[in-house]
Write a structure and sequence with these properties.
mainly alpha; about 0% strand; globular; 7 helices; single chain
Length: about 120
Amino acid sequence: MVSIFELVEEIKNDKIKNKNLIVCLEANNLRVVAMAMFKIIERNYCNKRIVDRLAQLGKLLKNNKFIGPWQFGHAAIATLSFLDNKDAKTMFNELFESLNETDKFLVENFIKSEPYKE
């Protein structure tokens, strides 16, 4: 069994296998989850488990600071929008439509900021 620390090193060095990205996405460490989200976007890797996990994370809209004005949920919902996957797009639309105007504004601006690009 590979430790989360080893998986983080694999993400940093771009050596992580796609199947291990879901392990990172399900970690209890939000920093690890964020790294996995950015790698998932970079690779445009998506499956049902990833869509489901991002939808779960999309509920973290309070007391789960990400960066700047964004909460973790904003980043997770935005991640769905970046993926070229029908299920991801459908889930993004469902979650986005359920947001209040402030959260919609924050998700839209997160998408525009493209924070995953270096």
